[in-house]
Amino acid sequence: MNILKSVFICSFILFTPFLVFSQISSERELAIDSVFQKNQRVDWPGCAVAIMEHGKIIFSKGYGMADLERDIPVRSNTVFYAGSLAKQFVAAAALLLEEDGKLDLSKNLRNYLPDFPAYGEDIKISDLIHHQSGIKDYFQIFEEKGLNYLDEISMEKVYALIKEEPGLEFSPGEEFSYSNSGYLILSMIIEKISGETLGTFIDKRIFQPLKMKDSRFVDNSEQIIKRRALGYRKNVYDKIENMTMRFRLVGSGGMYTTVEDLARWDDNFNEPVIGSSDFLSKFLKTATLNNGRDTRYAFGIRRDSFRGLPVIGHSGSLGGYRTQYLRFPDQQFSIAIMCNMANCKPGERAHDIAGIFLSDVFTR
Fold it and tell me: Which pTM does this prediction carry?
């Protein structure tokens, strides 16, 4: 009888999503569970979600599996690769250096990296931040060169490939074109000015002040990361496969974190801790192109609207990881979702969750 009871308890733990914290009604909890229904399995990758209101986590939960080989479930403190969610932290680091008087965002990047090709154009640091530099995205270069981004490619190698390009895609400020190359170059400038690695600088100036204890930038693919979720994808036969990557580039990505840590970052929008008194207003100021068009892209974060409400946020995608951070500033309501499945769509799930909580204030 005791053995049967033990088996039942173990099965219950495996099949039940891991709940860390909830201050919502059971009806809303069930509605959120339905959003992640496909992940409520012990043979499927999963997602972690944290929902914040007025700076506090009101719900956090893990669904599915972080490691299918070792039967480790996703929890709210599971560490995921963040993808392009990292860009807002890199842009924030650049803004902090400007406030320190060490970096001028209006200066040509060649003032800091004189070996970069001139191309007859003035590429400002702000052009890198706002994706209007005209520098080709290195993922496009990888494709043209037959390189697999899942393989280990050094920062030095990628920088050399970028510099080999015969010219820019367009004159700086003429267009908005998402470029991971710009943020890799930005990270190199941050490291040169600060005299520290990108990870060390951001840890000192952002992660530690915000108590983001499980967040880090990783430029060494051999590094051990406790509680890391492994990345997966679904193949054409509907089978789950490992999607192992040895990616080690930082700036454009390279960040590992948890939804709980993203909640701490989110709270900085309510009660700012980092930077000067007007840091946030500068951080959230969107860029305009040479023709005056607003790109809706600020410092590594987008400003947009959803169902008539203003939102800010960003998504992330690389290998077997998909992430989404979405904030409704007027309602001080935010959602962070991190998944370890390439076929997952956390952005759609964030919108579904927003509908559970904010449908009465949607204007369309």
Answer: 0.93
- What is the distance between the alpha carbons of residues 286 and 160, in angstroms, rounded to a whole number? 30
330 token code pair: 């007027």
CA distance linking residue 324 with residue 313, whole number of Å: 8
Helices 346-358 & 26-35, crossing angle to 10 degrees?
A: 160
Tell whether the model's pLDDT for residue 10 goes beyond 70. no
What is the fold, at CATH topology level, of the domain defined by 80-358?
A: Beta-lactamase (3.40.710)
User: Which strands, in side-by-side order, build the sheet including 47-53?
Assistant: 18-22, 56-63, 47-53, 333-339, 321-328, 309-318, 302-306
Strand 80-81 to 255-257 pairing: antiparallel
User: What are the beta bridge partners of residue 315?
Assistant: 324
Give the whole-angstrom CA distance, residue 84 versus residue 294. Answer: 21
Q: Round to whole Å and give the CA distance between 149 and 306.
A: 33
First to last CA, the chain: 57
What would the mean pLDDT of 68-75 be, rounded to a whole number? 96
List the domain boundaries for the chain.
80-358
